[in-house]
Design goal:
The chain is of the alpha/beta class. It has helices at about 10-15, 35-40, 70-80, 100-115, 120-125, 150-155, 160-170, 190-205; strands at about 5-10, 45-50, 85-90, 130-135, 170-175. Strands 2-1-3-4-5 form a five-stranded parallel sheet, sandwiched between helices. The longest helix has 16 residues, at about 100-115. The mean pLDDT is about 95.
């Protein structure tokens, strides 16, 4: 049975579109896309989705632990052996408070690939493959639009840069923006139907990697 880890943010965690900022919600098993991939492939799935996680930034509001650089090291040393790592981050990096550029966001992803592809991590897991997923572009709408001010333009520039990075690093690539759309309720998260569509696309990619 192959072991797959999905490492990401709230859209890997299964956060529904946000309507009430004070309320924590999460889709259940069989709804969120990693669990759908598990059902489709019969693999062992490790869900490492943290709402607010970035590819490279310590968050001054949510905490330094949102930085995926440290988080990925912890996750790779907490679990294993892995066969495949699915990496989908970058949405939170386009928040206004990080003053990021598309190039900086992709630099953070490159840092995560440096960690995943490093000899020490690869040997620890007897080698594992990586699927890099470019997140769906955000839309500045709804109750969290102020956090993502300017983020729509930054996120729309990411897909070709992620694709080029994936090719340079020899990893598989999926552009989620060609498969699904964010919810019109908050412009960031996915409704249940989009989780199902993303799961189909990811499972198709993984079948060719297992």
């Amino acid at each position: 049975m192959p072991v797959v880890m999905c490492f990401g943010d709230s859209n890997t965690h299964g956060t529904p579109p946000i309507v009430d900022l004070a309320k924590y919600e999460r889709y259940g098993l069989g709804v969120r896309w990693p669990s759908r991939v598990q059902a489709a492939l019969g693999c062992e799935m490790i869900e490492e989705g943290l709402p607010g996680r970035t590819a490279m930034f310590d968050d001054p509001i949510m905490g330094a632990h949102m930085n995926g650089q440290a988080g990925l090291k912890i996750a790779l040393e907490s679990h294993g052996p892995l066969d495949i790592l699915v990496l989908m981050l970058g949405t939170n990096d386009v928040k206004a408070r990080f003053t990021s550029t598309p190039e900086a966001v992709v630099g953070g992803i490159a840092g995560l690939l440096d960690i995943a592809q490093h000899r020490v991590m690869q040997e620890r897991h007897s080698g594992f493959k990586v699927l890099l997923v470019c997140p769906t572009p955000v839309v500045e709408i709804g109750p969290i639009k102020d956090e993502f001010w300017g983020g729509a333009a930054r996120s729309q520039a990411l897909a070709p840069m992620y694709a080029a990075l994936a090719k340079a690093r020899g990893v598989e690539f999926l552009n989620a923006g060609q498969v699904i759309k964010v919810s019109p309720l908050d412009g960031v998260h996915f409704d249940q139907g989009e989780h199902a569509k993303l799961a189909v696309a990811v499972a198709a990619k993984l079948r060719g990697m297992i």
